[in-house]
Amino acid sequence: MDITSGISALNWNTINTTQTTASTSASNRLQETLEDGQLNQASDDELMEVCKSFESYFIEQVMKEAKKTVPTEEDENTYMQYFGDTLIQEYAKTLSDHGNLGIAQNMYESMKRNGL
Questions:
Q1: Cβ(92)–Cβ(65) under 8 Å?
Q2: Which residue segment(s) compose the domain that 78 sits in?
Q3: 55, 82, 94, 112: most buried by Cβ count inside 10 Å?
């Protein structure tokens, strides 16, 4: 293996681990917030932020699964190999922040209605 391949493999593993850790961390934070009953004491803004975080995470997972259905060539763009998951995370966050999907809003209204 030449030095370039070794560096690429190392970078790929590091980036892949970092992306997986970031997704898992966001999921864990949301789960801890729900389990600790902290939503009862949350302000409206904090509650909406949790709902938007969930919506973003949900969209991200849907996009990742959808991406698996698209056939790719062996010579996929190197940048997409390294940063594809990060790009999907940013798309999901943007859709959640600026889109009109309504998942976060419906969750927020349901939680307020049910006294959370």
A1: no
A2: 3-113
A3: 55
Q: pLDDT tens-digit profile of 53-93?
A: 999 999 999 999 998 888 777 666 777 777 888 889 999 99
Token reading at 104? 């976060």
Compute the distance between CA of residue 107 and CA of residue 54 in angstroms, rounded to an integer: 9
What letters, b where the CB count within 10 A reaches 16 and e where it falls short, cover 69-81? eeeeeeeeeeeee
Q: Is 21 helix (H, G, I), strand (E, B) or coil?
A: helix
Domain count within the chain: 1
pLDDT digits (tens, 9 = 90+) for 9-56: 445 455 455 555 555 665 666 566 666 666 566 788 888 888 899 999
> Whole-prediction pTM value?
0.61
